[in-house]
Design brief:
By secondary structure, the chain is mainly β. It has one domain: Sulfite Oxidase, Chain A, domain 2 (Alpha-Beta Complex). The protein has 4 helices and 12 strands; from the N terminus they run βαβββαββαββαββββ. A hairpin with a 2-residue loop joins β9 and β10. The termini are far apart.
Length: 201
């Protein structure tokens, strides 16, 4: 399945980079490497993905089980809070909506904390995660992600600043109440909409 998020400017089949670039952003050709801490060493033989918290039943998938889920392709620009945007990306992976077919959130679950290697976390609303453009990506533009860019698996949330697209994802904790993740507790905005320039709290 391929998903192309709708253009923000209705009625235009093609938009220039300028029209697709949020305020305060510049377009780059090469993908900058930005993250907190060291790049983790990952052994796929012991890798696992866990779902817990406000769910009817916890879920744990190993790498083979995760990769057996149906795949999707998403075409989307991404925007970093530091001021750069990278256009016309093709992401391949597992749609968040596909994973949700295996999760039964409790009625009070409205927020999710994404947990990653290196003790990194970021918080998102379940509503934002259920957007059709959100996926767990393992490929970018036809190539496997590099470790520096989140291999073996990173979350991609195109409509929010890129720090929400967490690298080295290992699990999701469903929550009743929202709480800040790593960067959000250090002054970054709680949601991070690039079109509203929600950079800092």
């Amino acid at each position: 399945m391929a998903i192309d998020p709708p253009d923000r400017n209705a009625g235009s089949d093609r938009q220039s980079h300028g029209e697709r670039t949020p305020p305060g952003q510049r377009v780059v050709e090469n993908w900058p490497v930005l993250h907190e801490g060291a790049v983790p060493r990952v052994d796929l033989k012991t890798w696992s993905f866990r779902v817990w918290g406000e769910v009817e039943e916890e879920l744990t998938l190993d790498w083979q089980e995760f990769m057996a889920l149906p795949k999707t392709t998403v075409s989307a620009d991404v925007h970093c809070v530091t001021g750069w945007s990278m256009m016309d990306n093709t992401w391949e992976g597992v749609a968040f909506r596909e994973l949700m077919k295996h999760i039964r959130p409790k009625p009070q679950a409205h927020h999710v904390m994404v947990h990653c290697d290196g003790d990194y976390t970021t918080n998102l609303s379940l509503e934002d995660l259920l957007d059709e453009s959100v996926l767990f990506a393992y490929k970018h533009n036809g190539q496997d992600l590099t470790p520096e860019h989140g291999w073996p698996l990173r979350l991609v949330v195109p409509k929010l600043y890129l720090w929400k697209s967490a690298k080295w994802v290992r699990g999701l904790c469903f929550m009743q109440e929202d709480r800040p993740g790593f960067w959000e507790s250090r002054g970054y905005h709680n949601r991070g909409d690039p079109w509203r320039e929600e950079r800092f709290s």
